Amino acid sequence: MIIWGWRKLRKVLLDVDEMECSNCHNINRFKLIRYTSWFTIFFIPLIPFKSEYFIVCPICEYGYKIDKIEKERIMQDSSRLR
Ligand SMILES: [Zn+2]
Questions:
Q1: C-alpha distances out from residue 57 to 10, 24, 37, 66, 79, Å
Q2: Residue 54 Cα, ligand 1 centroid: separation in angstroms?
Q3: 74 C-alpha to center of ligand 1: Å?
Q4: Is the dihedral of CA 67, 73, 77, 79 positive or negative?
Q5: Separation of 67 CA from ligand 1 center, angstroms?
Q6: pLDDT for res 80
Q7: Where are the alpha helices (DSSP H) in 1-82?
Q8: 37-81, pLDDT tens digit by residue?
């Protein structure tokens, strides 16, 4: 019997600019986070089938979703600065 399912993995891609959080009102460098949904077999992630990107507050995890185009733009901007 094959046990299959899916799971979500979270990865911090980079720190973005300082912003004031509209939830906890701390000023911090927000994080660009990618959540990837993986198709799993026997609990091993095999095939990624969906990625979502979020900008979140590092303290309270409050944030908002961005699309892939916006994420590419942020990644490009930050690599130019380095
Ligand atoms: Zn916050």
A1: 15, 9, 22, 14, 21
A2: 14
A3: 20
A4: positive
A5: 21
A6: 74
A7: 68-81
A8: 999 999 999 999 999 999 999 999 999 999 999 999 999 988 776
- pTM of the predicted model, to two decimals? 0.81
CB 54 within 8 A of CB 63: yes
Cα 5 to averaged position of ligand 1 atoms, centre (Å): 32
Ligand 1 center to residue 20 CA distance, Å? 8
Domain that holds residue 54: 4-81
Cα–Cα distance, 61 to 41 (Å, whole number): 30
**Å from CA of 16 to ligand 1 middle:** 14
Asked if residue 15 has pLDDT above 90, the reply is: yes
Residue 59 C-alpha to ligand 1 middle, in angstroms? 5
Total of domains in the chain: 1
